[in-house]
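Lab notebook, page 48
Experiment: co-folding of the full assembly
Goal: obtain a model of how the components sit together before planning crosslinking
Operator: M.T.
Materials (sequences as entered):
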Amino acid sequence: MRPQKRTAKRYEMVNVRPGYLMIELENHTLARRCYFVAERIPPLEEYREGNRFWKPQTAAQTIQFDVRDTDTGEVVPFGELAGLLYYACCDKDSAVYQMGDLAHDQRVSLYVAITTESEKGHTPMPVEKVRILNTLFNERLTSPGKKVLILPDLFGLYRKITYGQMAVDFGLTSME
Amino acid sequence: MKIQELAERLELKAATKVFDRDVTGVYISDMVSDVIANAKAGDLLVTAQAHANVIAAANLVDNCAVVITQGKVLADDVVKMAEKAEITVFTTALNRWQMATKLYEAGIR
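Observation: model returned without errors.
Model output:
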C-alpha cells in the first residue's frame, strides 16, 4: 500500500473497492446481466428472483472506484463501470481495433469504457463522466507525447466481446 | 536507472524490443485492476501474468516496462501489442520475491 499524498492533479481515484464482476444468465429467457459485488467470495449459487432463475456464469476479480475533484471536493461515483477495454484486445476486423491502431500511430492509446449490464441491456457511460476518466488517467502519464483516449461504448461492444477481453481478472483464484 | 542498464544487471531476457526510459519505481501485482488503481507512471511492473491485459494495464498507467516472472512465455500477439504500445517486456526464471530482492539490491527503491 502506497502512502497517500497531496498532488496538483485535478482528479484522484478514491473509495477503491475490491470485489467481483458477476456475469449471470437467466435460465429460461437466457437474458444476461453483469454487475459488481463488493464481496470477499463471489456468490456463484443459482438463485430465484420472482419467477426467474439466475445462474452465475463466471466472476472476475476487479475494483470499483469513485473519482474526487480536488478543486471542488465533489465525488463522482463510477459504479456503472464494468471495465476498460483496450482496442488491441478487440477483433482485428472491428472498427475499434482499426481506430485504435490509427490512433496509436499518434501515440494515443484507445480504450472503451464498458458499463455493467441489466437484463434490459446497457447504457453507455455519459460523456461528462468519460471526460473525467480521460483527465484522471491522462494526468497520471509521464511519457512525453503519450495520451490515453477513453470512449463510451457507442459501438455496442458489450454485445460482441467476452468480458475476458476487458482489463479485469478472470481465474486468478485458480491461477495455474 | 535506465531499463537497459537494469536489464543487464539483472540478466533479464527481452521478449520485445527495448524502449529505454527511466525506472522510477517498482510495482508487483498479478491483478490488472490493482495495477490500474495503484501502479504509477515509470514503475517497473513485476508480475506472473503473461496475458494481453497486463500490457493493456501497463500501457494505461504508463509503466516503464514489465517483467514476467517464473519463466512464462508471451504469445506472439502479446509481443506485437507491447511493441506497438512501446512497452518493453522482459522475462525471467525468477519468482516475484526473488525479482524484488534483486531489484532492491540494484538500488531500485
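Interpretation: Chain A has a mean pLDDT of 88.
Next step: discuss with group before ordering constructs.
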